Amino acid sequence: MNIVNTIIKNALLTAILFSTVQFVNAQSLAEIIKKESVYYKIVDVPIPQHIKLEVGGLALTDDDKLGVSTRRGEVWVIDKPYSLTPSYNRYAHGLHEVLGLAYKDKGFYLAQRAELTRLEDKNGDGKADVYKTIYSWPLSGNYHEYSFGPKFMSNGDMLVTLNLGWEGRGVSSVKWRGWLLKITPQGLMTPIATGLRSPSGFVINDKDAAFYTENQGDWVGSGRMTHLASGDFAGNTAGLRWTDDPKSPLKLKPTDVAIKSGLSMYEYAKKIPEIKPPAVWFPHAILGISTSDILIDNTAGKFGPFDGQWFVGDQGHSKIMRVFMEKVNGVYQGAAFPFVEGFSSGILRMIWGKDVSMFVGMTSRGWSSTGKEEFGLQRLVWTGKTPFEIKTIKAQNDGFLVEFTKPVDKQLAAQSSSYTVTSFNYNYHSSYGSDIVDQQPAMVHAVKVSTDGLSAKLTVSGMRLGFIHQLKAEGVQSQMGEPLLHNTGFYTLNQVPGGVLKIADAHNMSMAGKMSNQPKRVNHMPVSWTNGPDKKFVVATIPGLKFDFKEIAVAPGSKVQITFENNDDMLHNLVILQPDLENADKVGQMAMELGLKGADLNYVPNSDLVLFHTGIIQPEKSESIYFVAPRKAGEYWILCTFPGHSFTMRAKLIVK
Amino acid sequence: MKYLFLNLCLLVVCVLMSFNESPKRSTANLIEKKIEVLPFKKFNLDGLTDFKPVSKNWQIVGKTFVDLTQKQTFVSEPGTGILLNIPGKGMSGNIFTAFEHSDIEIELDVMMPVQSNSGLYFQGRYEIQLFDSWAVSKPKYADIGGVYQRFDNSRVPKGYEGKAPRINAAKAPGLWQHFRIVFQAPRFNAEGIKTKNAIFKEVFLNGFLIHENQEVTGPTQGSAFNDEKPMGPFMIQGDHGAVAFRNIQCKLYEQNKVSFNSVSMKEFENSAKLIPDYNKLEKLREISTDTVSADMVTGRDSQKLLVFNGLMNVPTTGDYLFEMKINGGGGALLLKTDTIVNLNGDFKNEEPAFKLVTLQKGFIPFTLIYNKHQKFRLGFSLFVEGPGIARHTLHTAPPVNIAPVKKIDSAFVIDASNETVLQRGFLMHNKIKRTHTISVGSPKNIHYSFDLAFGSLIQVWGGKFLEVSEMWAGRGIQQLGVPLGIPVLLHGDPDFAFLENKNSNWPDSIPSSTVYKQLGYELDNYGNPTFSTLLNGSTITNSFVPIDSLRRLKRIISTKSIKEIWHKLADGSIIEKLPNGVYAIDDRNYFLDFSTDNNNTPVIRKSSGKDELLVKIPAGNQKITYTITW
């Protein structure tokens, strides 16, 4: 209904916005799958006709059999799962929608709707005879209250996540829906974090840090992955109902969170410290629509060039994405890339097989998925060939360091025109999903390619903390002339090294030629002004891309000195134009369209509309200009024409 | 947005119904009982005045008791309320009602002794068989609830058109079994030629629909008449075996119907949840129509208001019961200017409105309003029942007249015929959804459900095991397992409790003073589970053994406790200890045989208006066994 409309609207808007940056791929899905399969092949695991293997959980046993739990309440143990003739044994049955599986101490642990259960086969007949309740939680009877897990921490405790119920919106009708819980094998439960909505996938890294994926929905602008520590609030307010329980590590209440703040999650988190912004966003419909399991590549290079990186599955789009995760100033963040598409059903679970292939367990009953099968079990196998991909994107305080899996063609990679960077955000509000908001292009000023050709440092201006940055390296080719298999990554910029964005010093900017002749820029007081200027102004900026003044007034024909002190952390200029709003918009637009030349021209277009201007001023620097005010009375515009700034950075020169 | 109000309401409802750490039952018994059908006419069983004169095998008694070890035997006590038949030498006549009937809706309780045989003959001609079919696994037409066969000596085969009930819904001999039958008499034209066969529209036995729209082409074997007529007396067979009846009540119907005439319809744009003053709105169109239906709306996904006006034909003066349902929207029915049914707001089909009004024969101006304010929802229905007028639709129903039989998809049936099978899932028990429940099916065709959160046996049934389309088809919105037989419901409260004294109220949920821990279950070599729970440090295990393939389930409880624990075996309207030591539960709904091996004796006590059967289990290591028969 409304939800469907929002989804369609978002998808269309996404398509329109990104088509300008050519994201809607000219290649068809079939073509992409074919290219990816050269490097990573999808192989079926045969399933007998009579078994509805709606995979909820996957776990390898001690003797290298594959345990599979299903939404039909069964646990199957598959012998020889890597072969063309695996044999299936039903180990357990009668459970209620199992959505996870772990193997430990010669038995299984699993989360079903109502509890965390331990299964053991005491008499060794291949069938479980112990169905022990480790911890049971209440249920309201709503079908949407799925329970996921467990996964093990290093000390033997387990984590489970609990989905919200659904009644037109996410609800937490009973404890502890919407929470991440820690449960010991003895059944002692500690609530860890809340704000979860549809937490179908989560992972515990080698530092015992937990990360979960979230699906676009109410309070959730797009799919994402969030690091959860004790006391964190991940965004959806339903679970906050239970924070008055003495065990709750946070006291935040649903009414503490504004339904519509008008801010991004990153910005709003500055007001409410419990909010944990995501580490990685997956832009909706571009990188999936319902993110699920997370699998860390700890294969030491046996699965290709992405050792240490994270694979994230998607149920709706039957594909796996790849994430490079880093920690900057103690905060997890990173880049997300497409990886492999074309799986047979909706992906829910991924684990490593003993042969370092990836088992992918799938189900899509109840929801549609790109892969049309109702359920499935496949393996993703590395063919041994290394794809030419963006390996990592690392945040710097003045741009991005991009690494590649193979040496690049240095000439092409060194051109800033080979790359485009755009940043955008999502609103944090109670309604379902969010449009892409506040999208702005950034400028790639310079590129320095490493001597081994495996990395390129992009100097970028226009980066914004708390925004998602799309980096497209369309012009890059490998030394052998291959284009990138996937040329786009999305970096969630929560932090930069040093904490503050700093634009590169002038000598790092690539100004290809000499400074152009700009007669309208006069930086020295004319000798004829023997008594000095008639009026002097010192101006600066205020946060939010604004001048610190609204207007200054001068007499017609008078001598004026304006000193612009750039107290901001970005580049600015100051340009005085002819009157009329139309002209202000026009000049701003012309400046944006200057392209590569912009930097050389200080982003001031060659136009009769421009009267006087400064150059581009570095942060902490200032510049003075001198001019004679126009004879004609009127309200003349003062703008900063640095791309993207002119919409808000405006003031008036009143001549009267 | 527009869902915000409804969602907030739902949220409020959910808040009110929310679980704490221990599950609670909702206070459904506090909700007023509303009239959903017109009252039945009860048979007077103080004497035999409602019947034509009968032979002496028929009598009125106060109590009947059946010994399961004796065939065809009743023991009775004097009194009133029960119609009893014990055929013997020279007295074996059938019994006929004094009235004759055409269409009839009848409900009654019947008790059969072991291996007995009788029958209900509608219009004295069309038989629904009564039989002791307790042990039968695949019922035939000659089993209880079957439409008996027709018989013709000249035919081959001689017997034909008998129809078996859909499932065997029989209970054990000596238990009251409940029938609900809706019968439509054959139709004749002005020349007296039959134009339509007699139809058993609905036959329910013990709550299960065993026949639907079953035609009978002529009188069945043993009929009192050879011909077919518009009217006939209701007859009960008396010569084949002993049988007892109570609580016989019926509604007789003529073929009148209430109808809408001279109907015109106005259509308006409307997205307001409450019905606006449409006289102020600009109408999109006004037409005269024969179709009073939601389908008259232009644009399935639009937001519209339909106002139907016309004359309602009331065939006879009397009480009429209207029922209106809206599939996501609002509506109202007015007669003249009185609002009869008010569904002004946002209502689902599950929230119908009922209204009883007295109407005079004739034509009454009516207004029917359908407020389709929800874009993606469509539909309203209006039903009426009147004096001698069977409940029927007033809205124009879709062309398919016969309701499609809900087919059971074998893909969603869990079969327990080969080995013991378990399945957790949500279960309905007395209209409340239970979430921590498991059902166990056995090849002996005896199955039960256990509530793990309460440690209680909540229902038993026989026949096929479980249907799970509500769990495994699509999203499985209800997540319900549905027994494929009529379950006998146990009390549903926690089975075990620490009582302060023998008069303390039995808790309807786990009290906060009790620390209850579910421990799960273990399977024996045959896959039979033993359930364990921990109550304040006392361990209780429960296991269940189906006995033979009769409907008998043995329960084995062992406790290990430092305190004495009470166990509630059963509750019901009446619990009696029968002469053979067996307890008859809930006015003979089922039997409970408390083994004499046990050291303790159960007590019957009255509490909150019903009887409870409790037993006190001493401290230490104890074992209790008993058998439930139904």
Q: Can you tell me about this structure?
A:
The complex is a heterodimer of chains A (656) and B (630). By secondary structure, chain A is mostly beta strands. In chain A, strand 17 and strand 18 form a beta hairpin. The radius of gyration of chain A is 29 Å and the shape is elongated. Chain A starts with a helix and ends with a strand. The relative contact order of chain A is 0.09. Residues 15-26 and 504-515 of chain A have low confidence and may be disordered. Chain B has 630 residues and is mostly beta strands. In chain B, 3% of the residues lie in helices and 48% in strands. Chain B has 2 helices and 46 strands. In chain B, strands 1, 2, 3, 5, 10, 13, 14 and 16 form an 8-stranded antiparallel β-sheet that branches. Chain B has an 8-stranded antiparallel β-sheet with strand order 36-37-38-39-46-43-42-41, with no helix packed on it. In chain B, a hairpin with a 4-residue loop joins strand 30 (446-451) and strand 31 (456-462). Chain B starts with a helix and ends with a strand. In chain B, 42% of the residues are buried. Mean pLDDT of chain B is 89; it is low at 12-31. At the A-B interface, strand 8 and strand 9 of A face helix 1, strand 28, strand 29 and strand 36 of B.
Throw out a few tags for this protein.
heterodimer; A: 656 residues; mainly beta; eleven-stranded antiparallel sheet; five-stranded mixed sheet; 6 helices; 43 strands; elongated; B: 630 residues; eight-stranded antiparallel sheet; 46 strands
Topology readout:
The complex is a heterodimer of chains A (656) and B (630).
Chain A: H1 2-19, H2 29-37, E1 40-44, E2 55-60, E3 66-70, E4 75-79, E5 87-92, E6 102-104, E7 107-111, E8 115-120, E9 130-136, E10 147-152, E11 158-162, E12 165-166, E13 170-171, E14 179-183, E15 189-194, E16 202-204, E17 210-214, E18 223-228, H3 265-268, E19 280-282, E20 291-296, E21 310-314, E22 319-328, E23 331-341, E24 347-352, E25 358-363, E26 375-382, E27 390-396, E28 399-404, H4 410-413, E29 420-426, E30 436-449, E31 455-461, E32 467-472, E33 488-493, E34 535-539, E35 541-542, E36 546-547, E37 551-554, E38 559-565, E39 575-577, H5 581-592, H6 597-600, E40 610-613, E41 622-628, E42 634-639, E43 650-655
Parallel strand pairs in A: 34-38, 37-43
Antiparallel strand pairs in A: 1-26, 2-3, 3-4, 4-5, 6-7, 7-8, 8-9, 10-11, 11-14, 12-13, 14-15, 16-17, 17-18, 18-19, 20-21, 21-22, 22-23, 23-33, 24-25, 25-26, 27-28, 28-31, 29-30, 29-32, 30-31, 32-33, 35-36, 38-41, 39-40, 39-42, 42-43
Chain B: H1 4-16, E1 41-42, E2 58-65, E3 75-85, E4 95-101, E5 103-111, E6 117-122, E7 126-131, E8 150-151, E9 159-160, E10 177-184, E11 187-188, E12 194-196, E13 198-205, E14 208-216, E15 232-236, E16 243-253, E17 259-269, E18 283-288, E19 304-314, E20 318-326, E21 329-335, E22 338-347, E23 353-359, E24 362-372, E25 380-386, E26 389-393, E27 413-414, E28 421-429, E29 432-441, E30 446-451, E31 456-462, E32 466-467, H2 469-472, E33 482-483, E34 488-489, E35 496-497, E36 516-523, E37 529-535, E38 538-546, E39 552-561, E40 565-572, E41 576-577, E42 583-585, E43 590-594, E44 603-607, E45 610-617, E46 620-629
Antiparallel strand pairs in B: 1-16, 2-3, 3-16, 4-15, 5-10, 5-16, 6-7, 6-15, 8-9, 10-13, 11-12, 13-14, 17-18, 17-19, 19-24, 20-23, 20-25, 21-22, 21-24, 25-26, 27-32, 28-29, 29-30, 30-31, 31-34, 32-33, 35-40, 36-37, 37-38, 38-39, 39-46, 40-45, 41-42, 42-43, 43-46, 44-45
